[in-house]
Design brief:
Blueprint (H helix, E strand, L loop, with lengths): L8 H12 L22 E6 L17 E7 L7 E5 L4 E6 L2 E8 L10 E10 L5 E6 L3 E6 L3 E7 L13 E7 L11 E6 L4 E5 L4 E4 L11 E2 L7 E6 L3 E6 L4 E5 L4 E4 L10 E6 L3 E6 L4 E5 L18 E3 L8 E3 L8 E6 L3 E6 L4 E5 L16 E2 L10 E8 L3 E9 L13 E2 L11
Parallel strand pairs: 6-30
Antiparallel strand pairs: 1-2, 1-29, 3-4, 4-5, 5-6, 7-8, 8-9, 9-10, 11-12, 12-13, 13-14, 15-16, 16-17, 17-18, 19-20, 20-21, 21-23, 22-23, 24-25, 25-26, 26-27, 28-29
Length: 432
């Protein structure tokens, strides 16, 4: 939801994209290949792939810059517990450590080197016993038991508090977090594009960002003493919190703080979930209505900005400029999960139906290239029977879902060999 006038990693990525893309989209659509289903914890990815963002290797003469059709990521049969993808790189938390793929220009995958892309699922060293992960624009956080924090990647803004005065941490390194009281532990970590956020078991929220605290590379508490927070999320320069009363607070570099109150325009409903994207946010209230804030199409400065149709949305409260909420009748059952990306959104219902809307310039909606308004993402070609989705994620220009259960495994005559890379196998190295 934030804006910035300074040159950022995003500027570099977008310029690379402009340099590479052609007006001719023919031949850039993903051919549906019956990958073997490997059981619970499988990942389905789609969207931008010019930096290996979907974790799938393209043929040498394949000039496609995105993979439109959702398909299984070939990965070893380790159960994936969590996936984090805020921008252009993805990290997987599995039963035996962490793996990553995608853009690695700031060593944000912790492989001990910088490279433009890592196209295959690659093991990240020193990530055993990790229980939670979070990714930013160019950095990654790892949380181990006993609230031990580790990180790697971009650190020019102090988003990785460490005694090492370096702009990039090439390897996963231990971070300094000394503000916990006796018996208190870190319950959640998340990343904005340029800052890191930590929620403690006592409902305190700390932010690591040199721009928020210019005195030292450390932590600043942002919520009031009387405000007990139960969930946090972050984007460019902002941090959004959900407290135990169901109220939303927004904190940022250029904001004091503003309260998005559950009483504004929706009666006595309170908020249950939130997801903060680059240009917009999604909220889910207790009436199972999806609230959209900001610009969900990432085209605020475009003359041909797409407008949400009146038949699809209802105007929300004037307290939320540009806000709206989606008709419940648009979905086949009540909404259970939401995810906001850079300019697109994913919504999951109780019936395990996945919906998408927003920017589709890289096929991140998982639907036809011209799609932008709300519609269903078809996953029918990937399985014989229904499966359950344990996590959905909208990143900068990619999307993913993680499968928790499969009723009928997909069979294939293809070789079921697994496409996993170790650090020794990585040959791409484009040093800055």
């Amino acid at each position: 939801m934030g804006t910035s006038t300074s040159k950022s990693i995003e500027d570099d990525i977008i310029q690379e994209d402009v340099d590479e893309q052609s007006d001719n989209t023919e031949g850039r659509y993903n051919e549906i290949i019956p990958y073997p289903v490997l059981g619970p914890g499988c990942i389905i990815t789609w969207g931008r792939n010019s930096e290996g963002n979907t974790g799938r290797v393209q043929e040498e003469n394949d000039e496609r810059t995105f993979l439109m059709n959702p398909d299984f990521l070939q990965f070893e049969s380790r159960k994936v517990k969590q996936v984090s993808a805020k921008a252009w790189h993805t990290v997987l938390l599995t039963e035996d450590g962490c793996y990553g793929f995608g853009w690695n220009q700031h060593a944000n995958l912790g492989l001990g080197m910088k490279s433009r892309k890592i196209s295959t699922v690659t093991k990240i060293p020193s990530t055993e016993n990790v229980i939670q992960i979070a990714t930013g624009e160019g950095h990654t956080l790892f949380l181990r038991k006993e609230s031990k924090l580790y990180g790697c990647g971009w650190n020019e803004n102090g988003q990785l508090p460490t005694s090492l005065v370096e702009s990039n941490l090439l390897k996963v390194s231990m971070l300094q977090f000394t503000v916990l009281e006796h018996g208190e532990h870190i319950s959640k970590i998340t990343c904005g594009y340029r800052h890191s956020v930590f929620l403690t078991s006592q409902g305190k929220v700390y932010v690591a960002d040199l721009t928020l605290n210019n005195k030292y590379r450390g932590f600043s508490r942002i919520n009031n003493v009387s405000d007990t927070v139960v969930d946090v999320d972050a984007t460019m320069n902002e941090t959004m919190t959900l407290n135990k009363a169901g109220k939303i607070h927004l904190y940022g570099k250029n904001l004091p703080h503003e309260i998005l109150n559950a009483q504004h325009g929706v009666g006595d409903y309170w908020f249950l979930k939130m997801s903060v994207g680059r240009h917009h946010s999604l909220l889910l209230n207790s009436n199972k209505q999806v609230v959209v804030l900001g610009d969900p199409f990432n085209c605020a400065n475009s003359e041909d900005r797409i407008k949400l149709d009146d038949d699809i949305i209802q105007e929300y409260a004037k307290d939320f400029p540009g806000g709206c909420y989606l008709h419940k009748e648009l979905f086949d059952s009540e909404v259970v999960d939401i995810s906001a990306g850079r300019g697109h959104s994913l919504i999951l219902t109780k019936n395990q139906t996945l919906y998408s809307f927003g920017d589709n310039s890289h096929g991140q909606l998982g639907r036809e290239k011209t799609a932008s308004l709300l519609g269903k993402v078809s996953l029918d070609h990937l399985h014989g029977e229904n499966f359950n989705i344990q996590q959905i994620g909208a990143a900068a220009e990619t999307s993913f879902v993680v499968i928790s259960e499969l009723e009928d495994q997909y069979t294939s005559s293809q070789d079921a060999s697994l496409n996993v890379t170790t650090l020794d196998d990585v040959t791409e190295f484009n040093s800055l």
